[in-house]
Design a protein that fits this description.
- Two copies of one chain form a homodimer.
- Helix content of chain A is 75%, strand content 0%.
- Chain A contains ten helices and no strands.
- Chain A is elongated and about 70 Å long.
- At the A-B interface, helix 7, helix 8, helix 9 and helix 10 of A face helix 7, helix 8, helix 9 and helix 10 of B.
- The structure holds a DNA duplex.
Chain lengths: 200, 200
DNA sequence: TTATTATGTGAATAATAATTCACATAAGGG
DNA sequence: CCCTTATGTGAATTATTATTCACATAATAA
């Protein structure tokens, strides 16, 4: 029997990536250590050389998702200085992330992830969701400063409403197995929303 | 050992109700046959006298949720003939349902419910979600006919946007364990949204 | 080259839960 | 009142998975 040894950093990345990929395909319930090991090309028990337990694997997956989301914000801000354009760009990046990689809603809104792990729920809420909303709100705030967005609106409310354009679209797309045209909805809804927040 | 025998209809209701209640408290993952049996006051195996298996219990729970949602639409429509008022009323009924009974998002968006059950996913999508959205769209359409709502908007888009006010609020409320003020958000967001859809 | 250590293997363990089954008993019709 | 049957019981069965462990081996440094 011959096999390859890789150092733990590489394996950790492989394992987290495999887990993310499995979740995209089969959901959290479809994720088990044996499946991860199979994809990585090792034996189940070998996973435990690189992660203490399954929970730590899940934490690594959450980190991957967080990176994706924050990267989108950065991209959108680099693309243009106009608040409205930034939001539109971010909207499209986000919905494409959701549509192209079904794992995000499958993980973030999964009970499994949190039941028996209040600390993880707290972490996801504050480090991922709230942090993301804060960044969106900051874009809004800058837009208000520059007289691109109505200044009588609360940036935090606007950022949650922004999420409200994406989230149902993502869920409907997911539940309908692609039948619901999430991207079209987001584009149409954005026009209406944009009108209602723009400076006048 | 003395015990009471009840007919299967009553037991089915009790079991479905107990299941819904457990899901509200502990999520789908916290739901097991033993827990249901304990609440109802019978032994786990007795559950199988009234339901073929756990899946059928879940289907019964879904029916309960569907009833709740549709009842809200009816209430809102009976309350007032004004489309905008109907939507506002429905919005508050819905968010209160979500906040008062955490089971709805916990179930509808739970992977567990669907993994390995594509037919159930299809049913929830078409019989619950889409059907609900259709009813909302119908309210919008009537509002357009009566010149209460802008007629250049697609009713289906508006209905999904309507959902977009509630859904993130519900999820944030849930994830933050009540810290996020969902009702306040819904009220604020509604004002902005209402303005953007009203006839002018 | 050799010794050390991190990584990999396969088998065993343990916990959780759904489901089945043989047997018991309450309820209601005849 | 009896007897049939639906309902209830407790124990056993089965399946699934995470996790551990003793042992093996590749990589690396001395």
């Amino acid at each position: 029997m011959s096999f390859e040894k890789l150092n733990t950093e590489i394996r950790q990345e492989q394992i987290a990536g495999a887990a993310l990929s499995i979740i995209s395909d089969a959901g959290l319930k479809g994720l088990n250590i044996a499946g991860i090991a199979r994809r990585v090309g090792i034996v189940p028990s070998a996973v435990y050389r690189h992660f203490k337990n399954k929970d730590e694997v899940l934490d690594a997956v959450l980190d991957l998702i967080q990176e994706n989301l924050f990267e989108n914000v950065k991209k959108a801000c680099e693309k243009t200085p106009d608040a409205s354009e930034r939001l539109r760009h971010l909207l499209m990046l986000h919905i494409n992330l959701v549509v192209g990689n079904r794992s995000i809603p499958r993980i973030i809104f999964s009970e499994d992830l949190y039941s028996g792990h209040p600390e993880r729920q707290k972490k996801v809420y504050s480090d991922i969701i709230t942090a993301y909303l804060k960044k969106v709100a900051e874009i809004v705030r800058l837009g208000q400063r520059d007289r691109q967005i109505r200044s009588d609106l609360d940036p935090d409310t606007v950022s949650v409403m922004f999420l409200g354009i994406i989230q149902p679209a993502g869920i409907l797309w997911h539940m309908s197995e692609g039948q619901f045209d999430a991207i079209r909805h987001v584009e149409t809804a954005w026009k209406i929303f944009k009108e209602s927040i723009q400076f006048r």
